[in-house]
């Protein structure tokens, strides 16, 4: 069951630390032996694309992962553009190593589907899981993710929603708060990663701090959000050690909106929703967000942001023409006082692991 790696030219063995790898594009090729759930890979090794930019100077190893859901390909474009600009010199990194995994869910990406063999890869990072996808998750985590100091996981909202660019992170984690501020994404949502996700496993097993960036929608190109994400990453990577502006500080003029959590406004009935809000818009409790029409064209109901909720920002909203009862129409991040969460930390350190070897879940 041991993982062995083809070391043919252009391929990168996993036992080689990223710090010793020169900049380039690699395929992390895997072969398996014996009674192995990945036996079909014996004849066709999985090739995991990997981009490395090594400054040859001390600093953190920053990993960026994309397409862990195979249909969320805007992250692939983010990495392609980022590494091209690094090669051309229009983006510079002073220290450390940047490692990009543009396609984590290989089969899902090739088939333009979210899942891999019917499984959500981003819920398979659990020791209790069995089977092909869980085995891949385990090896990817232990061979590659374990080497990182910081992790940025690129996602997208569902194909039937359109969204504002936003970060999801555990804002009780000072390192994640610092990452979120330096990435210059306009909206940051407090949302700890769920058990079984890569980010949750990265912290609980190795103390690796992370954030997730939602870039556009699945299967839909989002050039503006892709460009904005690359610009934020360039600023983040260009000067990792520069102090982070804290809320209220004069340098914080571009501070993001901080959301304490999310809630959905759901369709109360089946029909044709017509939404008048837009992603990134600030909304007030009691505000009308649209109407739902019958197939005959009559207005069945108004879509209202409940008065019981707090002032919020539209994170995403339905872009498909039809809805059924309880369908998710508008996802709202409710606005919170940034002081309610952790202040940004001053250094990039891994999480402290408990005696049992597990960090607190992030
Ligand atoms: Zn995703």
Please, could you describe this protein's structure?
There is one protein chain. This protein has two domains: 4-254, 3-Layer(aba) Sandwich (Aminopeptidase); 261-340, RNA polymerase II/Efflux pump adaptor protein, barrel-sandwich hybrid domain (OB fold (Dihydrolipoamide Acetyltransferase, E2P)), CATH 2.40.50.100. Helices cover 18% and strands 28% of the residues. It contains six helices and 17 strands. The protein has helices at residues 74-88, 106-110, 132-143, 174-182, 198-206, 223-238; strands spanning 4-5, 24-31, 46-54, 61-66, 97-101, 150-157, 161-163, 166-169, 187-190, 209-217, 257-266, 272-275, 282-283, 288-293, 299-304, 312-318, 328-335. Strands 1, 2, 3, 4, 5, 6, 7, 8, 9, 10, 11, 13, 16 and 17 form a 14-stranded mixed beta sheet that branches. α1 (74-88) crosses α6 (223-238). The longest helix has 16 residues, at 223-238. The two termini are 30 Å apart. The model is unreliable at 1-11, 31-37, 248-253 and 353-362 (pLDDT under 50). The structure holds zinc ion. Zinc ion binds next to loops. Keywords: Hydrolase, Metal-binding, Zinc.
């Amino acid at each position: 069951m041991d993982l062995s790696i083809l070391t043919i030219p252009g391929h990168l063995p996993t036992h080689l630390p990223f710090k010793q790898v020169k900049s380039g594009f690699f395929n992390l090729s895997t072969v398996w032996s014996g009674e192995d759930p990945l036996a079909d890979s014996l004849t066709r090794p999985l090739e995991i694309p990997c981009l490395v930019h090594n400054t040859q100077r001390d600093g953190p190893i920053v990993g960026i992962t994309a397409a862990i859901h195979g249909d969320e390909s805007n992250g692939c474009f983010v990495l392609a553009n980022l590494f091209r600009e690094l090669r051309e010199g229009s983006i510079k990194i002073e220290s450390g190593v940047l490692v990009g995994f543009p396609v984590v869910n290989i089969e899902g990406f090739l088939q333009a589907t979210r899942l891999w063999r019917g499984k959500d890869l981003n819920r398979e990072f659990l020791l209790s899981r069995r089977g092909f996808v869980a085995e891949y998750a385990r090896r990817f985590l232990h061979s590659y993710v374990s080497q990182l100091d910081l992790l940025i996981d690129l996602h997208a909202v569902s194909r039937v929603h359109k969204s504002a660019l936003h970060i999801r992170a555990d804002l009780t984690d000072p390192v994640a708060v610092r990452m979120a501020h330096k990435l210059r994404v306009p909206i940051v949502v407090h949302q700890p990663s769920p058990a079984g996700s890569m980010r949750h496993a990265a912290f609980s097993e190795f103390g690796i701090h992370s954030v997730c960036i939602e870039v556009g929608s699945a299967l839909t190109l989002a050039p503006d959000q892709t460009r904005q994400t690359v610009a934020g990453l360039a600023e983040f990577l260009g000067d990792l050690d520069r102090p982070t502006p804290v809320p209220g500080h004069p340098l914080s003029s571009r501070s993001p909106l901080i959301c304490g959590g999310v809630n959905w406004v759901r369709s109360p009935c089946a029909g044709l929703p017509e939404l008048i809000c837009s992603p990134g818009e600030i909304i007030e409790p009691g505000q009308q967000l649209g109407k739902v029409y019958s197939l005959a064209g009559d207005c069945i109901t108004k879509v209202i942001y409940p008065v019981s909720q707090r002032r919020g920002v539209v994170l995403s909203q339905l872009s498909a023409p039809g809805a059924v009862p309880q369908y998710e129409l508008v996802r709202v991040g409710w606005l919170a006082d940034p002081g309610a969460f952790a202040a940004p930390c001053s250094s990039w350190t891994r999480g402290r692991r408990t005696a049992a070897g597990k960090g607190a879940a992030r």
